[in-house]
Amino acid sequence: MKEELLKLAGEMLEEAAVSPSQAGSSEDEKSQSNIMVVDDQPANLKLLEELLTHQGYSVKSFPRGRLALDAAVRTAPDLILLDINMPEMNGFEVCQRLKADERLAAVPVLFLSALQDIDDKLNAFRAGGVDYITKPFQLEEVRARVETHLQLHRAREVERDLLEKTLNGAVKALSELAHLTCPTLTQRSGALRGMVVHMAAQLRLPDLWQYELAATLCLIGCITLPDEAFEHAYIGDKASAEELQMYQAHPGVGFRLLARIPRLETVAEMIRLQQVESSNWASSDVAERGSCLLKMAQELDRRTLRGIPFQTACEHLRATRGKYPPALLDALKNYSPSRIDFEVKRLLASQLLPGMILEADVFTEDGSLTVISKGTTLTVTLVERVQNFERTRGVREPIQVRAPQNSYVDEAQLVRV
Description:
Blueprint: H1 2-16, H2 27-32, E1 34-38, H3 42-54, E2 58-62, H4 65-74, E3 79-83, H5 91-100, E4 109-113, H6 118-126, E5 131-134, H7 139-181, H8 183-202, H9 208-217, H10 227-235, H11 241-248, H12 250-258, H13 265-272, H14 286-305, H15 310-319, H16 326-331, E6 342-347, E7 357-358, E8 362-363, E9 370-372, H17 380-392, E10 399-404
Parallel strand pairs: 1-2, 1-3, 3-4, 4-5
Antiparallel strand pairs: 6-10, 7-10, 8-9
Helix pairs in contact: 1-7, 7-8, 7-9, 8-9, 8-14, 9-13, 10-11, 12-13, 13-14, 14-15
């Protein structure tokens, strides 16, 4: 069954990674596009504003670069038309500051300038500009270039939306499948995801979705391990040499599963490097930095499983100087793993709810088949699975679960112990 899940996982992710069609150019898109014009010449501002407004765009004009930067931070534009020769701060400086801000780095900047020297044009592109229009400009040329770069920007946004939503949806479905083979694995993946997402957000790392996916899938290779072997090796206090050897091979399994999926190459490399001690947080390589997040999150998770309070575990890692980057530990100063208080209940199949954890295996009524294993956290899909079996083949009731305190269950129908 585990081999079948691996094959299915690859197919699911490949389907999810298919590129979307490029965004079109409709009147609705124009009305939703916000363009910023920055020029110290009032006549140029008025001319460009009238041209672009007439084309259906929403336009904001600024005579100074500093004013434009402040406005962009509050509301990011879809495109910026930027003059070079301006007082206080020239266009090159404005563009460099925009590109240094992760929230604004993707906004396309089109330079407008009377400067025609090749060095000026090269400096514009080095600063981060995507195009250069020479003054005096032709209105039709400005219109055409604005529309071209907005179309490219929309296409990138559509692709980003695909990666963040569609791929995450496929991963969520894959995680539910993993519930059926190793509930403990899924619980640990959830704990790691919480820590990694928090660190990446605090550090303002770009492309947060990559770190989130890497954390969610970093243990996916462990579905090839027996449940007991994974639990022993992950915590590390009861593992045999054979169990440790199997566990140490899991990053390679996860890498082979994901490396052939378009746009997941970096995520796959993070997973491959998660046990490599030489990974360097100071490196500019995204995969190496991601693997550092995974290593630290796993070490902290192991320690909390041994009963060490989370912040105490962080201090233990801080004391091992040189091994764990202080910047990552600083990012976790205000983090606390989510804790839910549970109570044991004995329920009918019809009373099961997502979030409950099975205290014992669920069998068909005749005992010939295990429907779901002990330790599984129920999801909407898994609740439906139990209820479908109950309707068709019957299941042994009551079903013993750990349920979050105050979770709704019809007390009139509650099965008494």
